[in-house]
Amino acid sequence: MSRTVIHGGLVVTASDEIHADVLIEGGRIAALAAQGTDAAASWSADRRIDATGKYVIPGGVDAHTHMEMPFGGTYAADTFETGTRAAAWGGTTTIVDFAIQTQGRSLQEGLDTWHGKADGNCAVDYAFHMIMSDVNASSLKEMDRLVAEGVTSFKLFMAYPGVFYSDDGQILRAMQRASGNGGLIMMHAENGIAIDVLVEQALAEGRTDPRYHGDVRKVALEAEATHRAVQLARVAGSPLYVVHVSADEAVAEIADARHKGLPVFGETCPQYLFLSTDNLAEPGFEGAKYVCSTPLRPREHQESLWRGLRNNELQVVSTDHCPFCFSGQKEMGRGDFSKIPNGMPGVENRLDLLHQAVVDGHISRRRWIEIACASPARMFGLYPKKGTIAPGSDADVVIYDPGAEQTISAETHHMNVDYSAYEGKRVTGRVKTVLSRGVPVIEDGAYVGHAGHGTYLPRGTCQYL
Questions:
Q1: Closest alpha carbon to 158 in 68, 235, 232, 258
Q2: Residue pLDDT, tens place only, 103-121
Q3: Within a 13 Å sphere around the CA of 307, how many CA atoms are in the beta-carbon half?
């Protein structure tokens, strides 16, 4: 059984910062010992990694990705192979992607399709949520079986009528089912019926540029849908996880629910923390690069999101990684913003951007690890296997150089997309080495992993309940 010792670094988890050496054995963390102690000195190893001057952190858990997702007549540009490789470059060692139920088909058929896409192709470990786009008596029964088999979260949409949309009655039924089987309902909270009216009106008035994508998807319609989702969950006795929260009023709805003791949770994404409607309004058709839903908001919303992360009104930062190339994909919406595929790349940038938030004073080091590693692992039934560095945990470990400077660019990223949403942004901090279950995937800034190393993870239920 191979043994690895990581020595000299500062181990940072959601709960602790300790100068400790880490012993890895058989793909798991075997022990931690304070540096300079007899215990640490006594460890023999096949491989030693010097982390002097570096952080030793858990591998990131990105609980919201869309590899190979069909949308708007095209597909997300990253495959499970390219997307998980890019995740590894960015220090993320677990993704939770979304299997999609097709209308008129079973949940199981959708899940099987996504297993077929991912199996043997992933560089890091992966799990699945289930998108329910056809809530009926049969699919409600299937929810019980999926939870028992380790697919314990179900995403519903108040947006996208005719594609993924569920009405309030369908949402209530799914929430009632989840309240009995331990599942977690994830909600895309935007009033899609009202948004479609505003889209139609904008296009009729000649407002066709990318910036109008943000204009029609009103803050009030995100807040209204978030409020409605909370109340439906309250009636059903169900937990609720609101995805990609982008605006102050939606944060306030979640905070209000949590203050009342309701099991309501919220996620935001780096694009809402670092980008804004200024990007959507970039000249020419450049704004199309930033079209995603929920949309980017005016910059003043960012402080509410940071405050929500500090106060634990928001618990998780995921990416909603759903990349479409500018050339040939985003360009489908020239002259009609509603035809721009919704989604942005980001799986490779999340840990670095959030470390920049530490440098800038928005969050602490431990909160960085909490929102990027530990909380998503707990939220989706993977902790302490994932999300921490502790005896018995999988040896998903990142050696992170907090002083290295880099400039984010499409020229140097590894996502299979022809632009970067953060082009030219300088950040402090960089991944140096990444281990997945004790096996090097990134070594001193070089990719040494391979497709098929990543294994599928059946999950437990939400550990906050």
A1: 232
A2: 999 999 999 999 999 999 9
A3: 12
